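hiii, so i know i said id send this last week but things got crazy w the move. better late than never?? heres the sequnce for the chain we talked about at the cafe, plus the structure i predicted for it. fair warning i was half asleep when i ran it
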Amino acid sequence: MPETYDKKTIADLLDAKLGWPELHEMMSSYKDPDRFDKYISVLQDRAPWPEQILLPLGPHLFIVKKSNGDIVTKSTSGFEFGDYRENWKLKARIFVRDTDEKYEEIYPKLSHAHPEWMELREFYDPLDGRLLYVEAVPPGYPIVHNFEPDLQGFYEEWLGRPL
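okay and structure toks below
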């Protein structure tokens, strides 16, 4: 029988408060069947807004269901990036590292990619300025749309309940 973890342990996991032995055991063992629900519950308790979290996309980015039924991508700050099927990055603040000077703000000299071969795009929350995501791509490459989840399939086929 897989070990089950309570909400406090899941919260400690998110806050990096678990010791290595417990973390290793948690990562190595079978997952308890309600872990996703506990995880969502911890995230929902911490959310500064009332919308229901359907799926986390990152530590500060979520797919949520609004009271009117719309499903949108939303950040911790409350900024709504629009329909979850659209590329949220297009509405983020973007900083592009594409020169030696910009790279050397975060990398030691000669330890970064050549700016003519790769650029780093940093995507920030428009309201609070929190870094949400970074992508490394060749210069001029379109902004990547990483993930368009099948929410209905995930909920119905994986979790066994309606969205």
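btw Residues 28 and 107 are 34 Å apart (CA to CA). thought thatd interest u
miss u guys!!
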